[in-house]
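GNAT family N-acetyltransferase
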Amino acid sequence: MLEFRAAKKEDCRTIAELYSISSDGVADYIWTQLAEDKENVYHVGQRRYENEDSVFSYKNCIVVEKDKKIIGMLVAFPMISDGAVSDDPVLAPYSQLEFDNSFYICGVALFSEYRGLGIGTELMQLAEQQAKIRKFNILSLVVFEENTDAVRLYEKLGYKEVQREKIVPHPLIHYTGDAILMIKNLSK
């Protein structure tokens, strides 16, 4: 039996591991920049998700448990963009894909043995419910074009491509090509 629940502070290490999966290396790149004295990137991610004053907080996460073990997560929050583009050339393409005034699905991930079972779709449906509760009509997300399984899932769920940006290659980032901004309009 699966349990979907709001994340707790003690879940942050597992959330960091899952967010690393969902970002396909982008989080690892960021966390490497923030690491203190050879600190493990997952520890940096854990610290970030423990921060309650950031959008990257466990407070914006839902976790899925099976037999009391976290197997997946969703990170989603309102995207209120200031229009600024990162001055880091590796991160700039992603900041250019921010869709202002949307409910942003920042990350969805499952450990590999739980993929293909419909759990990701359930997490995406929870994101829609959260968007409606918070009075957002638009959901947004960014996906790598080479992550064809994810692109297919999002298209099946009604997301449409609206913009692309060329990825700046980096050894920690798993894909090349384009990053795609996709949105879903709930008012249609």
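thats it. The two ends are 34 Å apart (CA to CA). The chain has a mean pLDDT of 95. bye
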